[in-house]
Amino acid sequence: MINSKDIARIAGVSRSTVSRVINNYPNVSPETKEKVLKAIKEYNYVPHASARMLRGKSSKTIGLVIVDLKRNSDIHKVYDNVYFGPFTTAVIDFANQLGYNVLVITVYKPKDYKKVREVFYNKTINGAIFIGVKNDDPEIKNLIEAGLKTAVIDQEIRDDENDPFNKSIIVNMDNVTGAYEATKYLISLGHREIAHITGDMEKLSGFARLEGYKKALKEAGIPFKSSLVVKGDFVEESGYKAAYKLFKKAKPTAIFASNDQMAIGAMQALEEMGYKIPDDVSIIGFDDITISRYLKPALTTMSVSLLQMAELAVENLIRSVEEEIAIKAKFVVPVKLVERESCKRIEIKEENEKKEYLLSR
């Protein structure tokens, strides 16, 4: 039985070159690739791992790449993030309905992208959905340029034809509008000292929600105060620490947290500091995760459909795979306010040209 060593001898190349051709690595000249493929075809050589590729058949598998990169040594595993779980389940369900399997890959460090490159080059996956990525990630850019069909969740949409992400499917939630509406809601309740706990500022959802917060303040004629903005990173612990940091230097009457997990962490810190929600401090989150409705008080938040985002990503990626084209599709999923129990109206009383904030009874 002929093997890769025989193919290498016949084609006049090294065995590693045969492997690179079989696995579709880009660093092989067209002439060399043609010689190797000619020998493979002539001698009917089909290695097991690449049989489907050489027969021109799809693996019927897409990748779901969950990225959770951190600068420090405190690595947050996927199971710590209540956002990734429902999205992963939805992706698997929608892909299965369309006859595709899903290979889940986790990226905790930059070197972990090697796993994605390997399953792409050896044709284990036909395309990939990326979630949790930092904005403008060069690793994903390189994969897109190499030909991987991709759908990216939470990525800035730019009007630049040279941007590799314009060759990709992008699915975002309406971050700016959602943050704007959350802040505007607090303003409508009479709040003027409104704090913001940001998300990871290297991600679109982090800096876009800060933009929406600022927009609402500006529209209402409320000065932006940097002292009322504390950085978080979308996990509960960061919301907890942010609340303590915030109340050491300010006394806001309301907080807009960039996601529900940080809002939950902040609520715990406020309780420990002796503040009652919403009597002393109102708080609003973003995402509407399941636990939010069962908190005491139940968390007011901005709701977005992860199911819709997953469906858009899966359906368009599979269409891109089956039609063998790079679909350039951009989607923005709307968000809506869900009023619960964590926000309260306050009255504004003018006295001696100063504003006093009195809690309504």
Ordered list of secondary-structure elements with their pairings:
Blueprint: H1 4-11, H2 15-22, H3 30-42, H4 51-54, E1 61-67, H5 84-97, E2 101-107, H6 113-121, E3 127-131, H7 138-145, E4 149-153, E5 169-173, H8 175-188, E6 194-198, H9 204-219, E7 229-231, H10 236-249, E8 254-257, H11 260-272, E9 282-284, E10 301-304, H12 306-323, E11 330-333, E12 335-338, E13 346-351, E14 354-359
Parallel strand pairs: 1-2, 1-3, 3-4, 4-5, 5-11, 6-7, 6-8, 8-9
Antiparallel strand pairs: 10-12, 13-14
Helix pairs in contact: 1-2, 1-3, 2-3, 5-12, 8-9, 10-11
Give structural notes.
The structure is a single chain. The chain is elongated and about 85 Å long. The chain has a 6-stranded parallel beta sheet, with helices on both faces. Strands 7-6-8-9 form a 4-stranded parallel beta sheet, sandwiched between helices. It is α/β, with parallel strands linked by helices and 361 residues long. The N and C termini lie far apart (86 Å). The protein has 3 domains: 51 residues, lambda repressor-like DNA-binding domains (434 Repressor (Amino-terminal Domain), Orthogonal Bundle); 142 residues, Rossmann fold (3-Layer(aba) Sandwich); 131 residues, Rossmann fold, CATH 3.40.50. Helix 1 crosses helix 2, helix 5 crosses helix 12 and helix 10 packs across helix 11.
